Amino acid sequence: MRRRCGKAGNEPVWQAANRLRRSALPPHLIGWLLDDSSLTRWLKQACNGRFAVRVLRQGWTVPMSCETAALKLPLRRRAMVREVLLLCDDVPWVFARTVIPKRTLGGPGGRLAFLGNRPLGELLFRDPRVRRGRLEVSRVTPALLGVESTQAPVWGRRSIFRLSERPLLVSEYFIGELPPWPGERSR
């Protein structure tokens, strides 16, 4: 199922990952795109511990229409948006964008606003109250993300996480030259 959001070319077009033919994806990114466990854990393993998070922006803004639709937010409703780079040896591998509705920041979700340079994935995958929704995949140009990339086009994935039934949307775009997915060695 293809879902077009916003004006053509201005926002990602997302497809359910489980409906994609693997042959439609770049072979070197299949594991990175389709694994639904912690990306942070796999990046740290592939990076031999030289992993870091660099916050680019965090604040209240109106999300893209794709994000608003996915989170079922009213149009033009502001949410906390966090954009970060996930780095290995100071080289960007992943651009991540998280959209957190105001209601999600109440209760146990309050700590999401104060992550700083700590990886969101560590918090999400350690909390037994967190559930992950289905993965969706998209292919975009680096210009659409507003970042530099060694890859063109850039492939990304997103999913809705629920913390105590309150949603947040996490999108991860593979902008660097990643090594083979470490999960292949684990199987």
UniProtKB/TrEMBL annotation:
Substrate binds at residues 82, 120, 172. GO terms for molecular function: chorismate lyase activity. Its main location: cytoplasm. Its EC number is 4.1.3.40. It catalyses: chorismate = 4-hydroxybenzoate + pyruvate. Belongs to the UbiC family. Removes the pyruvyl group from chorismate, with concomitant aromatization of the ring, to provide 4-hydroxybenzoate (4HB) for the ubiquinone pathway. This is Probable chorismate pyruvate-lyase. It comes from Thiohalomonas denitrificans. The lineage of its organism: Bacteria, Pseudomonadati, Pseudomonadota, Gammaproteobacteria, Thiohalomonadales. The gene is ubiC.
